[in-house]
Amino acid sequence: MIKGHCLCGACTFETDAAPRGPSMCHCGQCRRQSGGIWSSAYVARAALRISGPVKWFASSENARRGFCPECGSFLFWEALDEDTCSFALGAISNPTGLRLEKHIFTGDKGDYYDIADGLPQKE
C-alpha cells in the first residue's frame, strides 16, 4: 500500500494499485508550482483514495493539478482525457519500492542544473 499526505496533513491519499511511470517532470508549470522538479507516478483514478480538502486548478485546457488548500502542497496531476491520476512521490509516507524510469519535458528544464543519472529523457 502506498500512503501519502500534504505538508499539514489535512489531505491524505492511498492506493493498493501498483504505481506506474515514476518520472521527474521538468516542465515550466511543474517547476513554477513545486519550486523545482516534480516527481510522480500514476495509478487508475478509481484506485486512488483521496481524503480531506483538495483544490483543483485547471492548468491548461487538457489537465488539472490538485493541491491542499491549507498548506499549498502540490499533490496531484490529471489529464482530462485519461482515467489516471499522478501523485507526488515526495508526499509518500512510506518506502515506495519504486525506481525512476525517465525524465519528461526536459526541453523546458531550468538552466541551473544538469540531468546526469543516465535515465531516458523525453523533450
Automatic annotation (TrEMBL):
- Keyword Metal-binding found: yes
Coiled coil feature spans: none
Please provide the record's keywords in A-Z order.
Lyase, Metal-binding, Zinc
> What is a single Pfam family found in this protein's UniProt entry?
GFA
Q: Which residues form the CENP-V/GFA domain?
A: 2-114
One example GO MF annotation: carbon-sulfur lyase activity
InterPro entries, sorted? CENP-V/GFA (IPR006913), Mss4-like_sf (IPR011057)
Would I find Metal-binding among this entry's keywords?
Answer: yes
* Record family assignment: Belongs to the Gfa family.
PANTHER family the UniProt entry points to:
CENP-V_GFA DOMAIN-CONTAINING PROTEIN-RELATED (PTHR33337:SF40), GFA DOMAIN-CONTAINING PROTEIN (PTHR33337)
Protein's UniProt name: GFA family protein
- UniProt source species: Aquicoccus porphyridii
Q: What is the lineage of its organism?
A: Bacteria, Pseudomonadati, Pseudomonadota, Alphaproteobacteria, Rhodobacterales
